[in-house]
Design brief:
The chain is built from four helices and nine strands. By secondary structure, the chain is α+β, with helices and mostly antiparallel strands. Strands 2, 3, 4, 5, 6 and 7 form a six-stranded antiparallel beta sheet that branches. It has a three-stranded antiparallel beta sheet with strand order 1-9-8. The longest helix is centred in the last third of the chain and has 11 residues.
């Protein structure tokens, strides 16, 4: 969703509350494409402070379906996104020096001139808040490296082949059971 902010950015000391909806249905990154299964409306608070700064604040909740890092089962991961951005309008009078203010606003990846792209803003916040490790449960056993069976559902019966680098130690353990 794109919000037009020209009149807002050119009128100093103005505040506005808006409730916007995120239009993106998935998060695409180098890791893959992850569907957004639930998204709450984004409560956005905009402030123009004396035509010098644009404050963007808000928060929302999104739930994204991400595979478990160990067993690859889909996990619904809830993210609480809190946005607090401050952009310099950097022009004494944006009506006279509109190009200067426009250049400063366009430097933010989610602003294009006086248009705020809410989806780009949320995308950046989702990537920033992305969890380091996703597990379906704390004691997830993962999958068998030989056959790919889910070890959470039971043993697969594969015999683990010893690491060839450890073959010398394997002989020691087989000869001396006391060790």
């Amino acid at each position: 969703m794109v919000l037009e902010l020209l009149t807002f950015c050119t009128n100093g000391n103005r505040e506005e509350e808006r409730e916007v909806h995120i239009e993106m249905d998935s998060v695409k990154s180098k890791m893959g494409v992850f569907p957004i299964v639930k998204k709450e409306p984004f409560k956005l608070h905009l402030s123009n402070v004396e035509n010098k700064r644009l404050l963007i604040q808000g928060e929302t909740d999104v739930t994204i379906s991400i595979p478990c890092d160990r067993c690859l089962k889909e996990v619904a991961v809830g993210l609480r996104l809190k946005v607090e951005k401050e952009l310099a309008l950097d022009a004494d009078d944006p009506m006279e020096n509109g190009d200067d203010a426009l250049d400063v606003l366009s430097q933010a990846g989610y602003m294009d001139g006086y248009q705020l792209d809410v989806d780009k803003l949320m995308y950046a916040e989702i990537l920033t808040g992305w969890p380091a490790k996703i597990l379906c449960k704390e004691d997830c056993k993962g999958i068998c490296s030989m056959c790919g069976a889910d070890l959470n559902e039971g043993s697969c019966g594969c015999v683990a082949a010893p690491d060839p680098r450890m073959a010398a130690f394997q002989d020691v353990f087989s000869k001396f059971k006391e060790v």
